């Protein structure tokens, strides 16, 4: 009976995922002015609703991870050693921000806990191509290939909505070709090669960037 109930959901997810793949920007071909306008102006709505597809096992694992006991994480937090982190100040979006790249790999929830407890900040939210480009160059110069940013999917059933963990507006995105439809998991990471975003399980262990 469960199999019969899941079949329509999986079919719905397949159709919606294909539609979303066609809508996702393919910036790997080089950044043109049209690409940048699409990212800066049309970034919020196309991938806000992402239908359920066939990654149900990842969904339930991540759901549990995102709702884990925050008090336990706070109690057991271990702040990074100085040699495991790199700080940088930069003026992006008209304001000066301090970013901390933590090389020691953590899950998404553990990374956010370290950002809030150790640095009184959050995993970074990115709201412009300029900031994204800066983070790409900075991490590339530090030989850091992949790292968490603060994007995550709030809901799994039927429709998925992207949010920033610091509560700011989801008004920019820079997905890798084929993403987010072809990804799995509900948390977002960035690559220094191309600066593109992908989604993966929140239980993955990655380096991360805090915005202080």
From TrEMBL:
GO terms for biological process: immune response. Residues 1-17 form the signal peptide. It comes from the Eukaryota. Residues 93-211 form the C-type lectin domain. Gene3D superfamilies: Mannose-Binding Protein A, subunit A (3.10.100.10). InterPro entries: C-type_lectin-like, C-type_lectin-like/link_sf, C-type_lectin/snaclec_domain, C-type_lectin_CS, CTDL_fold, Eosinophil_major_basic. Transmembrane segments: none annotated. Keywords: Disulfide bond, Lectin, Signal. GO terms for molecular function: carbohydrate binding. PANTHER family: MANNOSE, PHOSPHOLIPASE, LECTIN RECEPTOR RELATED (PTHR22803). This is C-type lectin domain-containing protein. It comes from Sus scrofa (Pig).
């Amino acid at each position: 009976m469960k199999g019969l109930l899941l079949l329509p959901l999986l079919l719905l997810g397949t159709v919606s995922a294909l539609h979303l793949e066609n809508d996702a920007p393919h910036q790997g071909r080089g950044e043109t002015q049209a690409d940048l306008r699409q990212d800066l102006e049309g970034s919020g709505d196309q991938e806000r609703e992402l239908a359920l597809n066939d990654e149900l096992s990842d969904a339930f694992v991540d759901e549990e991870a995102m709702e884990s006991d925050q008090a336990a994480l706070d109690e057991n937090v271990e702040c990074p050693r100085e040699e495991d982190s790199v700080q940088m100040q930069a003026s992006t979006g008209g304001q000066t921000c301090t970013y901390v790249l933590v090389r020691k790999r953590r899950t998404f929830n553990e990374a956010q806990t370290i950002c809030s407890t150790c640095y009184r900040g959050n995993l970074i939210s990115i709201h412009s191509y300029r900031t994204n480009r800066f983070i790409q160059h900075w991490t590339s110069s530090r030989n850091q290939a992949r790292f968490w940013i603060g994007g995550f999917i709030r809901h799994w059933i039927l429709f998925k909505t992207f949010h920033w963990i610091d509560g700011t507006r989801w008004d920019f995105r820079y997905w890798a070709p084929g993403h987010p439809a072809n990804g799995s998991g509900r948390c977002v990471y960035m690559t220094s090669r191309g600066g593109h975003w992908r989604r993966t399980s929140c239980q993955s262990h990655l380096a991360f960037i805090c915005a202080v």
